[in-house]
Amino acid sequence: MRQPRCAATMTECHIEQRAGLGEALPSLQRGCVYLDWNATTPIFPESSAAMLPYISSEFGNPSSSHAYGRTCKATLAEARQAVADMVGARAEEIYFTSSGTESDHWAIYGSVMAARAAWGFSERLPHVVTSAIEHPAVAAHLAHLAHQKLVTYTEVPVDGDGLVGAEDVLAAITPDTVLVSIMHSNNEIGSIQKIRHIASSVRESFPHVLVHTDAAQSVGKVELNVEDLGVHMMTIVGHKFGAPKGVAALFISSRVTSDKMCSFFYGGGQEFGRRAGTENVLLVAGMGAAAKVVQQELGAIKAHMAMLRDKLEARLAGALPKECVRINGPACAQGRLPNTLSISIRGLNSSTALANLADKLAASAGAACHSSGGADISGVLKAIGVPTDFAMGTLRLSCGRHTTVEDIDAAAELILKEAAAQGIHVSEAKS
């Protein structure tokens, strides 16, 4: 088999390889603290190195039988196995897609259309159970399918911690329910759902109903094993754990046959005949490399992120009036993603704060003001009952593998200075 050649110089490869856990990447050293890892992560050096040959010398179509194709086919197989190992699946249960949105759409559309076909495309509509705090990739797709009169669905409410109760999921299931889709962890407040309990409850009471979980935010942050979770499908998103954008995967259990889950794309026989289209070997190689990093370093990465999150939470909560601070999500830190801090500060306008700090701090707000005087508050914050005066001051701060202690210290001081500038009493704020 032909050996891939690295198109970059050895110096370029080595510079990127030096940045390990807790060390800033060159791309992060631009004077702006990056605490928006839940939006996207920088590409890990290992992923960049793995992709280099496929930018230049390794261009073959993995479906081709000649040497060029075989090299790329081997890369696909290696990456598929790495992703499978990362989540406790078998390689043949991992299907590469273009994005988390596509994976979510496929899980929903595939199960819904398979049911409609089984029912002879009658007036009977498949029913889906989901939660009130799902990512738009799930929520908006269900709304679209309902508008097209292809599905009905029920959004199960969450409690004040953003958690879904298994009993509420079971109560929402009807004779027409074909799928339960509940995210593994929330992208805004970091709440980790009890998916294992939900899946087992559904399986015991309604064994014909499929269970899907969107684990976009969980991969690379907490341990995941699809067999332990008991789900039939799981969404995995590359750019959330150090891989490039434009590549993701959908785990589909081998127990889910084609009569329960139809294809989303039709054409060639790629992805075991279930997802047509020539595979993007370049991006898949990067995803496979990132998966290997996660599998090897997850314990250390998780501990590093939790330490940074707790440090930031303590610094902010300790310097602001107690009655002005609300930490969103479960009170027990272990119930939230280790890298995610959703903090609401009464009296702060978070949109204004982030606009003022745009060149110094990258983070996300939980609400946005409009020129009409109204406010667009996150649906997640509404669902968990955050009062408007707190919701308007919500910041989502998320760290990662290459966030440093210095980043956390700098971010805390920037936020506290901005809070003081907006009239909030701040104690021990450094000048």
List the helices and strands and how they pair.
Blueprint: H1 10-17, E1 33-34, H2 45-51, H3 67-87, E2 94-97, H4 100-118, E3 127-131, H5 136-147, E4 152-156, H6 166-172, E5 177-181, H7 195-205, E6 210-214, H8 226-229, E7 233-237, E8 248-252, H9 281-319, E9 325-327, E10 340-345, H10 350-356, E11 361-362, E12 364-365, E13 367-369, E14 375-377, H11 379-383, H12 388-391, E15 394-398, H13 405-421
Parallel strand pairs: 1-11, 3-4, 3-5, 5-6, 6-7
Antiparallel strand pairs: 2-8, 7-8, 9-10, 10-15, 12-15, 13-14
Provide structural commentary.
GO terms for molecular function: iron-sulfur cluster binding; metal ion binding; transferase activity. With 431 residues, the chain is α/β, with parallel strands linked by helices. The protein contains 13 helices and 15 strands. It has 2 domains: 67-290, Aspartate Aminotransferase, domain 2; 298-421, Aspartate Aminotransferase, domain 1 (Alpha-Beta Complex), CATH 3.90.1150.10. The protein is 37% helix and 14% strand. The strands form 4 sheets. A 7-stranded mixed beta sheet has the order 2-8-7-6-5-3-4, with helices on both faces. Helix 3 (67-87) packs parallel to helix 9.
Mean pLDDT: 92
Which stretches are low in confidence, meaning pLDDT under 50 for 5 or more residues running? 1-18
Helix fraction bin: 25-40%
Determine the N-to-C terminus distance: 61 Å
SS strand fraction: 5-15%
Order of helices and strands: HEHHEHEHEHEHEHEEHEEHEEEEHHEH
Radius of gyration: 22 Å
Based on secondary structure, the structural category is alpha/beta
GO molecular function, one term: transferase activity
Organism: Dunaliella tertiolecta (Green alga)
Family: Belongs to the class-V pyridoxal-phosphate-dependent aminotransferase family. NifS/IscS subfamily.
Cofactor: pyridoxal 5'-phosphate
